[in-house]
# Entry
Amino acid sequence: MDLILSSFDIFFRWDVWAAILVGSIGGVIIGAIPGVGPAVAIAILLPATYSMEPIIGITVLLGIYGSAMYGGAIPAILINTPGTPVNALTTYDGYSMTKDNKARRAITLAYWSSFTGGIFSIIALIFMTSVIAKVAPLFGSRDILMAALLGLVLVVISHRKQTLIAGMLVFFGMFISTIGMESVKYTKRFTFDQSWLLSGFDLITVLLGLFAVSQAFILLIGNDKRVSMPSLKGKKSEGFFDLIKYKTVALISSAMGVIMGIIPGVGEFLAQFFSYNIARGISDKPERFGKGAPEGIIAAEAANNAVPAAAMIPLLALGIPGEALTAMMLSVFYVHSIIPGPDLFVKHIDFVYGLYESLIVINIIVMIFLLFATKYLLKIIQIPQRFLGVSILGLSFVGVYTLRNSMIDCIMCAVFGVFGYALKRLNLPIVPIILGMVLGNIMELKFRASQARIDTLFDYINRPISGTIFAIIVIALLIHFWAIWRQYRRKTN
# Structure
């Protein structure tokens, strides 16, 4: 009870509420604009959050992360263009309903499905807090080392048909995280006597280049297209009754989103894929899927909105981000010397509870805002792409320069922007680079910390937790290689 009351002291501050409003409403607007997305917005805002208190900075970023998916459903349903990449599956049934003059029904169904997934995952996170608090202190340096290694393995094997390139990009991220002056013996690594490399590659510089600057290039090179918006006719409550009718699909999809969110390197795409296929499998009319099935919208939106809160579990409990956006948030913790992991639930438990309360309120505010402001958001979707590209490019370089007042950082950002642009045009993943940088750094620190207790390689896995995680790594790799072998056999036969 004392913990809840102390968390209320944090939660009811005016600046925390300002962060909630900015994050939630700003995230919806960003998600509704095709071509921007939460990754770009968070990368741009990240330098500014360093000067804020952790609860404020994290609340803003989480608000954008979660609410952008709400907004991303609007263009996905109305103009067949997903506002964020994870809303792509919503176009299958959402746009079909729009063509059948059921746009209002599809939009409100997406809102209520997103709300269900978001609240479900937060409740799951809250109930798991006691378990996390008890288990987290049992993790030693070797256990966290193995957990980080598991995260890297899952990142690689989750990129189906791109596992080789994903592995190469993970190792590239790990490599660039080692460049510069290392923090233990202060030796130079891979600097080649270049003074500008002594400080290494800052995570924010790389993030802004790969995500924001590269996206700005895509928007600037692309053509501006004027789109006509369909009229929204009907009652705002239509989608709610559909959700009640297909409540089983909503609960299963939300649970799948939570499970996929907890597993590092998996994220929204696989959560949607499994949820959509399960919904189609249990449907009485599976032939409707892709042609305007309400269950398809429910499965996609409930699953992807259940992931953000669930993705905070490995981040808060072990300090291990599951994907790029939580990796960005991890840097905010580090700047303020609040280290996610076992000690977080001992030293900063009121902060954790305050974060949970903020997540619930963010979803409620977003839902209320969307029910009354959708018609105004339709105008935002029509903002010219090139104007967005110029704005993103300018904000990115301002953010990079303010980090250390260095033009070198701006040049690095531009180089990574070109690299990210090339990866996007080739349809290659960017996330493995970021997770390679973050998890590689965690692995190096925990590897050094565990050296005093290591005599043989077996000592890394002789603890119950590290041994269990290592077994999971082996099983995951075996399943992955078995799937590749089966696919190869089918092709040869």
Q: What stands out?
A: Residues 2-140+227-404 form one domain.
